[in-house]
Fold this sequence. Notes:
- This protein is α+β, with helices and mostly antiparallel strands.
- The chain has one domain: Histidine kinase-like ATPase, C-terminal domain (Heat Shock Protein 90, 2-Layer Sandwich), CATH 3.30.565.10.
- It is about 35% helix and about 30% strand.
- It has a five-stranded antiparallel beta sheet, covered by helices on one side.
- Helix 1 runs antiparallel to helix 2 and helix 2 runs antiparallel to helix 3.
- The protein starts with a strand and ends with a strand.
Amino acid sequence: MKTAHWQLPGDAEQLPAAIAFLQGFWEEAELPMALGFTFELALEEVFLNVALHGADSSRVPSVELAVTASDTEVVLVVADDARPFDPLTLATPDIGAALEDRTIGGLGVHLVRQMMDTVSYTYEAGHNRLRMTKHLSQS
């Protein structure tokens, strides 16, 4: 099992560094590149949500990334110290509706839920924790 942790400011300008951290782990763990793109997209959606909606005028939230790979699955946890918010409570967007009839928000979270095998949220010790899991196919 391989694990890596990294903490960084929840600022949109830090997204390239967060993606680079994930890519470095992916290469070191020798994980399938196609699966890596799925996790990069999920990380981008979740990280930018924290950066854009978790910050307030007084401070930028801190974000901790934890990624673990075993023989059977990859788990990415994004934790932040912004105000409590469970993105999984957002209504599923009506992607069949005309663009002008759609409400703003929730599409990124919907996409993450569709790409991952499981997504769960907890609020523990002052931190939002979104856990995303994808099972590795066994050949």
